[in-house]
Amino acid sequence: xxKIIVGLTGxxxxxxxxxxxxxxxKTDTETHVIVSKWAQVTLEHETNYKLKDLQKLADYFYxxxxxxxxxxxxxxxxxxxxxxxxSARSMAAIxxxxxxxxxxxxxxxxxxxxxxLILAVRETPFSxxxxxxxxxxxxxxVSILPPIPAFYNHPETIDDLIDHFVGRIxxxxxxxxxFIKRWDGKLGK
Length: 189
Known about the structure:
Elements: E1 2-8, H1 14-24, E2 29-35, H2 37-46, H3 51-57, E3 60-62, E4 80-86, H4 88-95, H5 102-112, E5 116-121, H6 128-139, E6 143-144, H7 158-173
Parallel strand pairs: 1-2, 1-4, 2-3, 4-5, 5-6
């Protein structure tokens, strides 16, 4: 069974993290979930979900100040980590090794252990600082996945846009995403 850490930070787009956990809960993946203080506020502001709904999807759940959690140590074996959404602040903290809370510390561990880290950076427009942090992290092997919608699949609802992006995250994790419509090379409807 694969072990994946899922972090949510305070950027807009908490639905991405929630839907990712829904999708992972239907696989043979053990999820270790960390939600920052502002991620909880954002989740409850942007959606009809509460923190307890997110906790139900997680195999293991940690608070942002739980610096003694297993995911804070490199000796705890995990395959990868996704932060969705990832705020520009969290991206900067990770890029510069500043572990303010457990999401940042867990990402730092993933980097030092040379495991897969995926950041769904939710910010627009990007400043030079954001771009420099992205480049710095990309050079370390981090996958930068801003939640940019695709339209070749003719989405009909916001849920279609969300699910397609979650499918792209799952692709990066090597987890099958049967629910997304993939490009087939055919133009037109």
